[in-house]
Amino acid sequence: MLYRIVEVLPCPGYRVWVRFQDGTTGEADLSHLVGKGVFVAWCNPREFEKVYVDAESGTLAWPGGLDVAPDALYDEIHNGRQRDA
Question: How many other C-beta atoms are found inside a 10 Å radius of the C-beta of residue 23?
């Protein structure tokens, strides 16, 4: 299944709130990526806060070509809801 993100808001602690095209919403934790490889830029929280949705691909993106695929975010949000239910 193709998961497309249509809205994103940065949250404290390197988390993002996202809304997917199918209406699914929730927060995902990206803190495990901070400082690793290309994500070293996120060591400055202001860089992380520059997150936006790439309209063409429906992924989360940051200036400089950083991006995060939406499928893992969708799974994290969906699985979190199942645990909370």
Answer: 7
